[in-house]
TrEMBL record:
This is RNase H type-1 domain-containing protein. It comes from Hibiscus sabdariffa (roselle). InterPro entries: RNase_H-like_dom_plant (IPR044730), RNase_H-like_EbsB-rel (IPR052929), RNaseH-like_sf (IPR012337), RNaseH_domain (IPR002156), RNaseH_sf (IPR036397). The lineage of its organism: Eukaryota, Viridiplantae, Streptophyta, Embryophyta, Tracheophyta. SUPFAM superfamilies: Ribonuclease H-like. Gene3D superfamilies: Ribonuclease H-like superfamily/Ribonuclease H. Residues 69-189 form the RNase H type-1 domain. Pfam families: RVT_3.
Length: 218
């Protein structure tokens, strides 16, 4: 695990230098890795409240708000992940769907953070102004709901999401059990079998559309 985290931290530092001109010292990378290991230990002790563990169905958003569900599939062998994103309106109708690939991913925790960031960036690309971002990663959602500055090991991703939040008139983040995130989970699963990212507008793969139809409000 330490070797994988070191590889990921070095890869991330390289990207920060190439794209932003930010130089990360060896000491900073080492501190990042050690802090991340402590973060993983603390997450193992994170208990999800009993009321959140019950199976629930997808709930449509209110009014003109667009709900965007995200999920991720992670390959420990390839150190890569797939983000599955599904956008629906208050009638439960699909507005957009996509899956995208990420390389150099150390674990599922980082994969979920990337998926959340992709959900927010997709909303910006599509021009949505009032959105509800929903996923089944409680730790990610809690960090984005918090009013305090995130200082965890995934703070670069969380902070990037916070910057993107300024592009909306209204944006909220909510947690849902896996049962209520089935369509996004299916997109992430399908993307794991494809080599290229893909986006759909007002439609989705057949297996995803079946889930959406079952979840549509009566």
């Amino acid at each position: 695990m330490v070797m994988v985290l070191t590889f990921w931290a070095t890869w991330y530092a390289r990207n920060k230098f190439v794209h932003e001109g930010t130089v990360c010292s060896v000491a900073r990378v080492s501190t990042f890795v050690l802090a991340y290991l402590r973060e993983l230990d603390s997450l193992e002790a994170l208990a999800i409240p009993a009321k959140m563990t019950k199976d629930v169905k997808w709930i449509p958003p209110d009014g003109d708000i667009v709900k965007i569900n995200f999920d991720a599939s992670f390959s420990s062998a390839l150190k890569s992940s797939i983000s599955g994103i599904l956008t629906r309106n208050s009638c439960g109708l699909i507005m957009a769907a996509c899956y995208s690939h990420h390389s150099g991913v150390a674990d599922a925790f980082i994969a979920e953070a990337f998926a959340c960031e992709k959900a927010v960036s997709l909303a910006i690309d599509l021009g949505f102004q009032s959105v509800q971002i929903e996923g089944d990663s409680l730790s990610i959602i809690k960090k984005l709901q918090s009013a305090t500055l995130d200082k965890s090991v995934i703070s670069p991703i969380i902070n990037d999401i916070c910057v993107l939040m300024g592009s909306f008139e209204e944006i909220t983040f909510s947690f849902v059990n896996r049962a209520g995130n089935a369509a996004a989970h299916e997109l992430a699963r399908l993307g794991a079998h494809q080599s290229e990212p893909r986006i759909w507008i007002v439609e989705a793969p057949t297996s995803v559309e079946r889930i959406v139809e079952r979840e549509r409000p009566v």
